[in-house]
Specification:
It holds the Pfam family DUF4124. The protein has about 180 residues and is mainly beta. It has 1 helix and 14 strands.
Length: about 180
């Protein structure tokens, strides 16, 4: 169904399913010449006003339960994965540079950002793509993680942590 048709069906269903209120301003009762009670919204000499406690409501006779008018919300389950470096990789770079890339599934939408974490600390600011270059990483074991953040700043998906080992040549010489 197109959006316009769905909108029209929704509006018609809402209007039809609204209760119809049948209230008048006043109701009067009296006995006629034969002794029968007569109710009317027009006063007559000798008539008494009836105190109406609840308004009369009539519901629509159309069964709307068969109409599927609730829009379906699509929950997107994002998956974040670090594709480079591989888990337990050793990186040999004397400048301490590490190239990090990730994948987002099903699709990286506008408004989403990626926050890279190095050793559980945010690395720079979140960005709109999943490619990072780390500079001057110290020697030793490190852990990377990526968080996918929506436009409200909420983390909606996270990658599994990836451990890597930075190997840099020592500047200390043995004498």
């Amino acid at each position: 169904m197109t959006n316009l048709k769905l909108f029209v069906v929704m509006i018609l269903t809402i209007v039809i399913s609204l209760p119809i209120s049948a209230t008048s301003t006043k109701i009067y009762v009296w006995r006629n010449a034969d002794g029968v009670l007569v109710y009317s919204d027009s006063p007559k000499p000798g008539a008494e006003e009836v105190d109406v406690k609840e308004p009369n409501n009539m519901s629509s006779s159309i069964d709307t339960s068969i109409l599927d008018i609730n829009p379906k919300t699509i929950e997107e389950k994002y998956q974040v994965e670090i594709s480079q470096p591989a888990n337990n990789a050793t990186i040999r770079d004397n400048t301490g540079s590490v190239y990090v890339s990730g994948r987002i599934k099903p699709i990286f939408k506008q408004g989403l950002k990626i926050q890279l974490k190095l050793d559980n600390q945010p690395y720079e600011k979140p960005q709109t793509h999943s490619m990072f270059v780390l500079r001057n990483v110290e020697r030793g074991e490190h852990q990377l993680k990526m968080d996918l953040i929506n436009d409200k700043g909420k983390v909606i998906a996270s990658s599994e942590p990836v451990t890597f080992y930075m190997h840099r040549a020592s500047v200390i010489r043995a004498n």
